[in-house]
Design brief:
The chain has 448 residues and is mainly α. It has helices at 2-37, 40-78, 84-106, 108-115, 120-145, 149-171, 178-192, 196-220, 225-232, 245-276, 281-318, 322-359, 367-392, 396-416, 422-447. The two termini are 23 Å apart.
Length: 448
């Protein structure tokens, strides 16, 4: 059983890696087409819209995706029936969407005028896009928890492809302007939901078949009064606790804090560099952003591992398969170490040349700093893997405390330390914070 589960996890991760990898290429095409079709200021507003959307949806909606993924896998492994977990998750997701709508409407002036240069269309596209992603991330959690990784990959692929078609329409002259390109962001999560009927159809057919089987059993034999009496006397600790709104909200809040910490790690560096460097701050922030892409880019592909490993580990924990659980975590950590080591060697041998070819610009990329970020990337991905293992163990509050503490220390180091080279400061801070985070999560994992 455990070998089959490991093969299933491997296939799921492979399918998602391909789907997300192709999605990344298509997304690159979206921005490439937009940059060639729009004026510089218009393209800048498109990138701002993109950043605003995906920082918001990652923080608000990924907690419910993780909640659904873990809970569905756990209940399936334990043979627990019922739909209260879906109702709880939907209630939380609707509440988060409503919270966003209230805040965005209250801050319409600053968002529309200062972020989007007075564009009313971009403001409303932001509102529609973020709200549409509430349904998309709910569907992702449902698919991951049910091990429907092929449909999950299809969802993200349809999302990227439909978005890219809008930029293509502008590039070939069917449509024009930044609003047409931006509409692709709103359409993408809506179109991607076309995969949901396939998942629901299979679930309904499976439920109907199970109902027929249960019905046949009940007709064949009446319940045994002694067995019913024994079940009634069962110890409370042996029964699955009811999945309540408080239970689901506690998990979601913990993961939301983790998502906020993650955004701090990835975005605080460039933002603080821009704020502290005066006239050259914007250019230096862009340079810092390019350096951190060494860590950011692998995270896109690692989403496939994160998505598939949480339900996989949850199922094994619920089934009591301790050794396969540890083996899956260790194999993932070993693969990350090998990947990060290869990246660090490439950066050591030819990092400045590679970065100059990819990004150019007036700044010189330092070989040592690129190696530091490469090592930090490996530690960060290892921490993300340990985090999923802790979520599978039900240790979300402890994991979130470690993330928040490390993110706060990372930001304080950037604010308080006095470095002449601000980019080197960000590189050292990223490596140090990732190392401490990995150590803390590993300690929690060993205790769990």
């Amino acid at each position: 059983m455990s070998t089959s589960a490991e093969r299933s996890y491997g296939r799921g991760a492979a399918i998602l890696s391909v789907g997300i990898g192709v999605t990344g290429v298509i997304t690159f095409g979206y921005f490439s087409l937009a940059s060639h079709s729009l004026e510089e200021a218009e393209y800048g507003r498109i990138t701002l819209l993109w950043s605003a959307v995906f920082i918001t949806v990652s923080v608000l909606y990924r907690p419910v995706e993780q909640l659904l993924s873990r809970t569905i896998a756990d209940r399936d492994a334990r043979g627990v029936r019922g739909g209260e977990h879906l109702r709880v998750a939907a209630t939380i997701q609707l509440a988060l969407g409503a919270l966003f709508a209230v805040v965005a409407l209250a801050l319409r002036g600053p968002i529309q005028d200062e972020l989007f240069g007075g564009s009313e269309a971009l403001y409303w596209i932001l509102i529609v896009t973020v709200l549409a992603y509430a349904a998309s991330y709910f569907a992702r959690g449902f698919l991951a928890g049910n091990h429907r990784f092929g449909l999950y990959g299809g969802l993200v692929l349809m999302e990227a492809s439909s978005r890219c078609l809008f930029a293509l329409a502008v590039a070939v002259g069917i449509a024009e302007g930044q609003d047409a390109v931006a509409l692709g962001m709103a359409a993408a999560p809506i179109v991607s939901l076309a995969v949901v009927p396939w998942a629901l159809g299979r679930r309904l057919r499976a439920g109907a078949a199970e109902g027929r089987a249960d019905g046949g059993t009940r007709v064949a034999a009446d319940p045994d009064p002694q067995a019913l009496d024994a079940a009634a006397r069962e110890e409370p600790s042996a029964r699955e606790p009811e999945f309540t709104l408080a239970h689901g909200s506690g998990f979601a809040v913990s993961v939301l804090l983790i998502m906020l910490a993650e955004q701090t790690f990835l975005n605080a560096g460039p933002l603080l560099v821009e704020a502290s460097e005066g006239a050259r701050g914007a250019a230096l922030a862009g340079f810092t952003f390019n350096v951190l892409l060494i860590a950011r880019a692998p995270l896109q592909l690692f989403q496939a591992v994160q998505t598939s490993i949480l339900p996989h580990l949850t199922r094994m924990r619920a089934s009591g398969e301790t050794d396969p659980f540890r083996r899956s975590v260790n194999l993932t950590l070993a693969a990350i170490a090998a990947f990060a080591g290869c990246v660090a060697l490439v950066m050591l041998a030819a990092g400045p040349l590679v970065m100059d070819l990819l990004f150019g610009g007036e700044f010189d990329y330092e070989r040592g700093g690129l190696v530091l970020v490469s090592l930090g990337m490996g530690l960060y991905l290892a921490a993300a893997t340990l985090n999923q293992a802790l979520l599978a163990h039900g240790r979300a509050p402890q994991a979130s405390a470690a993330w928040v503490a490390c993110a706060a220390a990372f930001a304080l180091f950037l604010l308080l330390a006095d470095f002449d080279d601000r980019v080197l400061q960000v590189e050292i801070a990223f490596l140090g914070a990732a190392a401490v985070l990995c150590a803390l999560l590993h300690t929690l994992y060993r205790r769990a």
